What we know:
Elements: H1 4-20, H2 23-27, H3 32-37, H4 40-51, E1 57-60, E2 64-68, E3 71-80, E4 84-91, E5 97-105, E6 120-127, E7 134-141, E8 147-153, E9 164-165, E10 168-169, H5 170-179, E11 184-188, H6 191-194, H7 201-206, H8 209-226, E12 230-240, H9 242-253, E13 259-263, H10 270-283, H11 290-306, H12 326-333, H13 337-342, E14 347-353, H14 361-371, E15 378-383, H15 410-420
Parallel strand pairs: 8-11, 8-12, 12-13, 13-14, 14-15
Antiparallel strand pairs: 1-3, 2-3, 3-4, 4-5, 6-7, 7-11, 9-10
Pfam families: DUF3887 (PF13026), Hydrolase_4 (PF12146)
Protein name: DUF3887 domain-containing protein
Domain DUF3887: 11-100
Amino acid sequence: xxxxxxxxxxxxxxxxxxxxxxxxxxxxxxxxxxxxxxxxxxxxxxxxxxxxxxxxxxxxxxxxxxxxxxxxxxxxxxxxxxxxxxxxxxxxxxxxxxxxxxxxxxxxxxxxxxxxxxxxxxxxxxxxxxxxxxxxxxxxxxxxxxxxxxxxxxxxxxxxxxxxxxxxxxxxxxxxxxxxxxxxxxxxxxxxxxxxxxxxxxxxxxxxxxxxxxxxxxxxxxxxxxxxxxxxxxxxxxxxxxxxxxxxxxxxxxxxxxxxxxxxxxxxxxxxxxxxxxxxxxxxxxxxxxxxxxxxxxxxxxxxxxxxxxxxxxxxxxxxxxxxxxxxxxxxxxxxxxxxxxxxxxxxxxxxxxxxxxxxxxxxxxxxxxxxxxxxxxxxxxxxxxxxxxxxxxxxxxxxxxxxxxxxxxxxxxxxxxxxx
Length: 421
């Protein structure tokens, strides 16, 4: 019979095939009974339905093993953006897969100490209407109206309204923290999260940041202004990561916003940021493996191709970094955050984590600083110990750090409250 060490490796390879979308090879590891119970098409459907709401994979955790009668079981917990899914694989004596379970584990949220739950209430709202209407939550302070309002705009990827990453809920921290201090906050599920199953491949190919982010952010700001008890002249917008990068564009299209808050926004081209991120992550261990170097070389080649104006006109998704749609790249190439922010008359707050490896103080924050130099209505602040999620830590930041429970630092909450008020 196969040893547990061999079966652990087989289990990890099997999960790798699932993530690669190679369901033919994955189903080929089943015994005869499993091939009937869970054929290739059913395996694909089950896997996609399991992970569709889990978000991006952050890491595979250490395998756990068990033995029941003549079967050996390997369970690998997979940490995703919004949940942990345990992939439980049962092997027969011949080392074939004779059982497969996907077991989701939700992560409980614990409110930070700066939250006073008696200071606010929450109501469910709907942003927009029709096919792409989005469910959201409006957090309203108790006390005398009208309240200043803040709309939260997510980072890249299919984010929920709390911007859940592992056990952390960045937007819930901000909403509850600010509402405890008398500021109403609106957060909502992103279109690519709540309507993922309605997005056809053709729609995804044509999607740009306008459909993914901007359109819904504008609707949310409009809803906030129309909400009873909100000061219509004091509605602000806070973007995080991609949302922060696009905040100047959103403000350019909504001249009623009282101000924008840019939390970890990029001023570099997105492909340069992606290359920098992968280079950083592959160097965290000290030595880059030959495979990692090959992947970096391939990514750099794709980034270089994007700089050729003629090439981008005849490019396919497979030739692009992360296989992102061509329309998406073209849209972002036609947008310069630093130059756009210069055109705004509104108040601007730029916040940056000093330990952020995704959005860099030395490049992105410097870009905002250079663009807003000597502007009296612009405030810029670096929090040296905070990462991309504005959670405190030590040493070099890593994706694994996002799986440790923490909260948006109280100093950040207080800084935003003081700036708005």
